C-alpha cells in the first residue's frame, strides 16, 4: 500500500495527515505520521482533507466528507463511525455512545476505541465527554479538546 503524508499548520498546532489510495488513514497531532511506512508527499485525498480541515477551523464546515480508510477491529470501527453521528456543537458521554452502538455496558471499551481513533477531528472523538460533563482524556491533550469544543460552541 502506498502511503503518503503531509503536514499542515492549524490553530491546534501541526497536524500530520496520512492517506492511502483508498482514503485518509490518520490525522496525527504533531509533525510526523503515526505510520512509519508513509513517505512525505501529496495527493488529491490529502489536499481534500487539508481543505476540509481548514474550512472546519474557519467555522465554514461542520461535516467532513473525505473518504476514509481505517484499520481496526469491527468494534472499534463501529465506535469510530458512530462519532460522526454526534452533531457539530454537541457532546455525548461514553455511556451515550455505548448505547448508540448497541453495547450499553461497554463504556470502557468505547473509551478504549475512542482513544485509538486514527482520524481525530474528522471523526470527532473530542465531542465525547464524561457522564458528569467533565472533559476527559484526549489524544491531542485536554487544551485542544477544549479548543475544539469551544470552536463548535459546545462549551
Largest β-sheet summary? 4 strands, mixed
Strand content is 5-15%
Distance between the termini: 40 Å
What letter string, H or E per element, gives the SSE order? Answer: EEEEHHEHHEH
Determine the structural class based on helices, strands and strand pairing.
Answer: alpha/beta
| Shape, principal axes of CA atoms | globular
Count, helices: 5
Low-confidence stretches: none
Q: What level of helicity do the residues show?
A: 25-40%
Mean pLDDT across the residues is 94
Going across the biggest sheet, name each strand in turn: 3-2-1-4
Radius of gyration: 15 Å
DSSP, total strands: 6
Explain this structure.
The chain is α/β, with parallel strands linked by helices. Helices cover 32% and strands 14% of the residues. The chain has helices spanning 44-57, 74-83, 94-100, 107-115, 142-151, and strands spanning 4-8, 15-19, 24-29, 39-40, 92-93, 128-129. The strands form two sheets. A four-stranded mixed sheet has the order 3-2-1-4, covered by helices on one side. Strands 5-6 form a two-stranded parallel ribbon. Strand 1 (4-8) and strand 2 form a beta hairpin. Helix 2 (74-83) crosses helix 4 and helix 3 packs across helix 4. The longest helix has 14 residues, at 44-57.
